[in-house]
Predict the 3D structure of the following.
Amino acid sequence: MGHRDAVVHRAADLCVGLRAEFEREINEADVLKFARNCGDMNPLHTDVEYARSTNLGARVVHGAYQVALASAMAGMYLPGRISFLVSYHAQFSRPLYFPCRVAVRGEITAWDPDNARGSLEVVVAELPGEIVTSRIHVGFTCHEGATKVPSPPPNEGRPLPSVDAKFVLVTGASGGIGSYLVGELARDYSVLAVVNRRPLPSELLGNPRVLQLKVDLSEPECISNIEEMLGGRSLYGIIHAAWPGLLQGGLLSVPRQALEQQLSFATFHTIELARLLASRSKNEGGRLVVLGSTAGTEKPSLSTAAYSLAKASLEHTVKLLAPELALKKITINAVSPSFLPVGMNLHANERQRLKAKAAVPLGRLCETTDVLGAIRYLFSSDASFLTGQNLVLSGGQI
């Protein structure tokens, strides 16, 4: 591979399907130097006679060496210099004997532009036979924003509207669907918009009925920060639209930490928000709406199994919370759209959009206005007896 300057992709240029490739010679000196540097002097890698006596028959390259090649892919080629790696999950399909020449191929399999997080699949294949020896899934985030993208001026210091105003809290408020909902709901309510990595769009920051609060839902002090911002004010409703991104692959290939994060947004964070609303709603009750997906119990997806599992868990959380919240005159429901061309699907290519559209009997994709319409209904007095349900926006798909 040799030394080279890192590729500089901008976060705005990243998308699912983006690929890169390099080749590398691996010889005895490389393996022995790696063994000395990392301290793994296992004779299967370093001792010719010992390795010959095993069922492998010869010395093999460290698995960690192949993971290091995946690190080189992520840090130097794709995404390149802007990447910061947060997880690895490796599968080794067959031994890699040396000396050898390998091709290292990377492809972005998930990309969440709202949170600047993604997943990269790296395949190491022995040449010239193209024999795949390992697949390494790399989770990454991007760090370019800290020095290159100035943040809009925060509005945390803006005075809140009057105590009598109806307040609605929206999580994931800077995301594609989240920011749209904030703008539309601000026509009828005062909105406390919860963001994490990215601020609200500038036009929403200038809206006098919108207040931004930057908190991480995963942090223990999250709810107390929201409580402090609200002061003595009550809440009428909460829309839980935050999600930690779309994970590719089956359940056996997903790192435990990533799976736990998905399930946390579906269960623990939903429960915490329900407790917050129960403590902040007035006598007339309130509304809690969570954003699900048809990929939950309706049409589970093996290619995004962790996402499907978490969205299915979200539906069950809603159902189980409904009786408890009903005692407080609070309804809780899920709105589960099919393929929605915003947020995590914003960078889907034309083929993916056409395929999704072709599966909808109504002949069009689900739109943000469809989600807004369902939420407006659930927030209205007409839906006061509807709770514990999952409103599926499928366009007639079965």
Summary: The first strand starts at residue 19 and ends at 26. Residues 6 and 17 are 20 Å apart (CA to CA). The chain has a mean pLDDT of 88. The first helix runs from residue 28 to 38.
